[in-house]
Write a structure and sequence with these properties.
Elements lengths: L21 H13 L12 H22 L26 E2 L6 E2 L7 E5 H6 L5 H5 L5 E4 L7 E4 L15 E5 L2 E3 L12 E8 L13 E7 L7 E9 L3 E13 L3 E12 L3 E3 L8 E2 L2 E15 L2 E15 L6 E2 L18 H5 L2 H4 L6 H5 L5 E2 L7 E16 L2 E15 L15 E18 L5 E21 L4 H5 L2 H7 L3 H9 L5 E22 L4 E24 L10 E2 L2 E2 L18 H15 L9 H4 L3 H18 L3 E5 L3 E17 L2 E12 L5 E2 L2 E2 L5 E14 L4 E22 L1 H7 L6 E25 L2 E16 L30 E13 L3 E12 L2 E2 L9 E2 L2 E12 L5 E7 L9 E2 L3 E3 L5 E9 L1
Helix pairs in contact: 9-13, 10-13
Length: 922
């Protein structure tokens, strides 16, 4: 929660005197300090923002003066002077931008949690995980830059697909992001972060049916500014951040430039590459942003922002630690699939590397791995936006034009130093988003004030996810029978190696999205205490997806291809799957391919008669060919030529109804009913169009916002219920390809994005701040959350029940993955003047979560126990902020609870980390 202390003397507000209308600015600032109106939470504001705030407060002052039948009271700037250091500090008004205008948090009739950029900087919190640990009922679900996700109220953890909208929207400097990975970059030079819970869209550029994360970065100011921060810590960590700005042309053009650089070793070591050469969970980030503010008149301002995060590499995917695969399923039956690496690595093929030990190098000791082909996740992004504001006839017309892109590349490994998985992994060739938003905002006051707008957004994405294989892949993926057949002699081993060596299969998606929306929201002031907020939005979505899955490199075993897969011709020959005998359907060209196999692997001479060389092979040799072909066929999987999915074209509504009643100056109650929809998904599954229905969310909330104990305690709380129909996540869907291929009267299913019929969440949320203790501020944010599948009859099977014959299981009544019952964060800051012009400060933040299941199939092996993590800081600096030295400790008590678990893997938590921060203003 954003907090400011009231007792600032006028000398601490020099920036207010730099602007036009500075005498009035000082008057309004004094009123804000005295409690008559809000003071914006940032240390600096743009001219436009200050003038808008002055105009609004001027209206309030005039209205109060008229109501009292007298003249305006004298400026209350002396209020701070009457506050002694020994008295409790009253909390200043918290101001948010959640409705695209500066408003008191207490006046916004929805659940909103706020964290200031100052607090994030103080505790070295720069990513979404750190924000989640300071906000109740908001969580970050770990993954790489593309697969991580955000949850609100336990909803949103589902695996993301590239054609799917994020359930939790992201809005940065008034620009809505339509692609979840755009939120994967670090935050820097942040002014404030707001989390809005429940369906949004009647005021925002992009609708989001679970909530929105709204990030506001610091804006240019005409005041000269220069600040820096240098951090040195364990694991060779170095972080540099800085910002500089001020007037280019006084009162006409200002600028602000900010940058960050973060580099350090990870906490999971790779034995194959050496401890210093390769680590996972490392830091390698750089980014910069430059902004220009133009204010040619009091009625117009423009802000241009350009940002860049160049290509850097961080190893996310390789920090998985393997555990022995259970030998029995949940029903007690023996696991006969031989999926445990101990079975594979016990094969002669892998025992040739005498220095490798399964127990030591695959199951690992401590946070170490041993793998050869894993590469970092390479990402980059750039963007540009222009925001224009005209003030005319009692309204503000805003135009926001923005461009944003994203690239992603990762190569994965199976977890060993052997040449098995090679050049396989996800690749976003280029995601691009272009958006144009227009917004019209009326002045506050009167019977009704309102905002309305229009959004046009277009995006495109090219995404592929290769499966690539090396020279040891055949020996790894062969089943026990195939391996024994091929490892019997040198000819078979040659087949075993070539069956998959250098084979690459690539699915490609070409995703196109166009959105057009009109929206509006009005506050109806029916009486002095009663306001009714109504909002409506209509969004037309037009979405297409073209998909293919093809071989892009045949490698060394082209001749072992099948004839065709799903209509895609591969140039192989037809033979019995077990005996290897030729069938009677081969053409002369196909028989020639069979002869080339006989010659290449067994030295049989090719004759003038097609097929004769192959026919001369022994039965054992033909069985070896059949085994090699079977390994290759199973790992090629399903192929299909480019196929257009059934597009999604629909106009979707977002609705808001929220009455609020101001009981007195210190207590406001409210009720809200919200409805929102997430667009359906156009996708192809195994070569067939498999559309996903839109997700529909209805949310109800009843709460209050209060300021108590002589304004030393801010307490906000609410109860809520959210119902979702057709919740989008991985489910078991009808597999048209396999059903048609087998044609045996059985209906087959496969895992793909689909719809869960009904999900329900009930809960309570509390946000509080207390400053009634001398020099101390306390903060609390917590939630009780009960998120369950009300109806989920077609769920995927967890690994421990994968042996049952049923194609899917019923998870109705179970809690959603990642949805803990209880979460809270508690923080405290102590700041005390010492040694004249110095200030001693210390703070901590503790985040607690009750147990939850981290596995999307709700495996019994996926439970993460209740745990807490604490960040701590202690430091000393000058009160004028010219310099400061802080000791920073992340995960103070070294909590090692895994981030995620399955039945034979887990992702370890980052261990305790200690660093020292030097910061100041120049």
């Amino acid at each position: 929660m954003t907090i400011r202390v009231r007792n600032h003397p006028p000398a601490q507000l020099p920036h207010l005197r730099q602007f036009r209308l500075s005498p009035l600015a000082a008057l309004i600032a004094g009123m804000a300090i005295a409690g008559s109106g809000p003071l914006y939470a940032a240390e600096t504001r743009s001219v436009a923002e200050l003038q808008a705030e002055i105009a609004r407060l001027q209206q309030e002052l005039a209205a109060r003066t008229a109501a009292q039948g007298g003249t305006a009271a004298a400026p209350a700037a002396t209020a701070a002077e009457t506050a002694a250091d020994t008295s409790p500090q009253a909390l200043d008004t918290v101001v948010v931008r959640s409705r695209h205008r500066l408003e008191r948090l207490q006046d916004v009739p929805i659940s909103v949690a706020v964290v200031t950029g100052t607090e994030l900087e103080r505790e070295g919190a720069s990513d979404l995980d750190a924000i989640a640990k300071r906000v109740g009922n908001f969580s970050w679900n770990p993954g790489n830059a593309r697969t991580s996700s955000l949850s609100i109220r336990g909803l949103g953890k589902q695996s993301q697909t590239d054609a799917m909208d994020p359930s939790v929207g992201i809005n940065v400097d008034n620009v809505a992001y339509s692609y979840n990975p755009l939120s994967s970059f670090d935050l820097f030079d942040v002014d404030s972060v707001e989390v809005l819970r429940g369906p949004q869209g009647t005021l925002f550029g992009k609708n989001a049916n679970l909530g929105v994360l709204k990030i506001t970065n610091k804006r240019p100011s005409f005041n000269p500014e220069a600040d820096y921060s240098l951090t040195f810590g364990e694991n060779q960590r170095f972080i540099a951040r800085g910002a500089v700005g001020g007037a280019v042309v006084d009162e006409l053009l200002a600028w602000r430039g900010a940058f960050q650089f973060d580099r350090g070793q990870g906490y999971v070591k790779n034995l194959e590459k050496g401890y210093l050469e390769s680590t996972f969970g490392n830091h390698d980030r750089a980014a910069g942003r430059v902004q220009f503010l133009l204010t040619p008149s009091a009625d117009f301002d423009a802000r241009l922002s350009i940002e860049l995060a160049p290509t850097t590499g961080e190893a996310f995917n390789g920090k998985t630690i393997y555990t022995p695969t259970p030998t029995r399923y949940a029903d007690g039956s023996v696991n006969t699939l031989n999926t445990d690496a101990s079975t594979r690595l016990a094969r002669r093929w892998f025992r040739q590397l005498s220095s490798y030990d399964y127990q030591r190098d695959y199951l690992y000791g401590g946070n170490t791995v041993n793998l050869d082909h894993q590469t970092p996740t390479y990402t980059d992004t750039k963007g540009i936006s222009a925001e224009l504001n005209w003030r005319v006839a009692g309204h503000t017309l805003t135009s926001i034009t923005a461009y944003k892109d994203f690239r992603f590349q990762v190569r994965n490994d199976e977890g060993t130093p052997f040449d098995i998985t090679k050049r396989g992994g996800g690749h976003v060739d280029k995601f691009e988003q272009i958006s144009q938003e227009f917004r019209l905002t009326s002045e506050l006051g009167g019977f009704v004030d309102y905002q309305t707008g229009l959004l046009l957004l277009k995006s495109s994405n090219r995404y592929d996810s290769n499966a690539g294989f090396g020279s040891d892949a055949g020996a790894w993926f062969a089943n026990a029978s195939q391996y024994s057949t091929l490892d019997a002699n040198g000819n078979g081993r040659y087949l075993l190696e070539n069956s998959l060596n250098e084979l690459q299969v690539s699915p490609l998606q070409k995703i196109e999205t166009q959105s057009a929306a009109i929206f509006g929201q009005a506050n109806w002031h029916l009486s002095e205490p009663l306001t009714v907020t109504t909002g409506v939005r209509f969004t037309h979505e037009d979405r297409d997806n073209r998909s293919s899955r093809l071989i892009i490199n045949n490698g060394y075993g082209t001749e072992l291809n099948p004839v065709a897969v799903n209509g895609v011709q591969l140039g192989g020959f037809s033979s019995n799957n077990t005996s290897g005998e030729l069938t009677g359907t081969n053409s002369a060209a196909q028989l020639s391919v069979a002869d080339s196999v006989a010659n290449k692997y067994f030295g049989t001479a090719i004759t003038a008669t097609p097929g004769q060389a192959y026919a001369s092979l022994t039965a054992a040799q033909k069985r070896q060919v059949a085994a090699a072909k079977a390994i290759r066929r199973s790992n090629i999987g399903v192929l299909w030529a480019e196929t257009k999915a059934q597009g999604f074209r629909e106009t979707q509504p977002t609705l808001l109804f929220s009455p609020s009643y101001k009981v007195n100056d210190n207590l406001t109650t409210y009720f809200s009913a919200q409805y929102g929809e997430k667009a359906g998904v156009a996708q192809v599954t195994n070569g067939y169009s498999n559309p996903v229905k839109p997700e529909r969310t209805t949310s109800f909330e009843l709460g209050f916002k209060s300021s108590l104990l002589d304004n030393t305690l801010v307490l906000n709380a609410n109860v809520f219920r959210t119902n979702i129909r057709d919740y989008q996540q991985a489910v078991q869907v009808y597999d048209e390809y396999t059903t048609t291929l087998n044609n045996d009267g059985t209906t087959y299913y496969t895992s793909a994005t689909g719809n869960v019929p009904k999900v329900r969440v009930n809960g309570v949320e509390i946000d509080a701040t207390y400053s009634g203790i001398r020099y101390t501020t306390l903060r609390f944010s917590g939630a009780y959350n009960d998120a369950v599948y009300k109806s989920f009859p077609n769920a995927g099977k967890a690994a421990e029940v994968n042996n049952i014959a049923a194609p899917y299981v019923d998870l109705s009544g179970e809690n959603l993955p990642g949805a803990a019952k209880f979460t809270f964060s508690v923080g405290a800051e102590y700041r005390r003047p010492v040694l004249g012009d110095k200030e001693f400060h210390t703070s901590f933040n503790t985040f607690y979560t009750s147990k939850f299941n981290s596995d999307n199939t709700l495996s019994s092996y996926g439970w993460i126990g209740a745990h807490s993590t604490t960040d701590f800081s202690i430091g000393l600096g000058r009160r004028d902020k010219s310099y400061d030295v802080t000791l920073l400790v992340k995960n103070l008590f070294d909590d090692d609870t895994p981030l995620a678990k399955t039945w034979n893997t887990y992702v370890p938590a980052p261990p305790r980390w200690v660093g020292i921060v030097f910061s100041g203003k120049l």
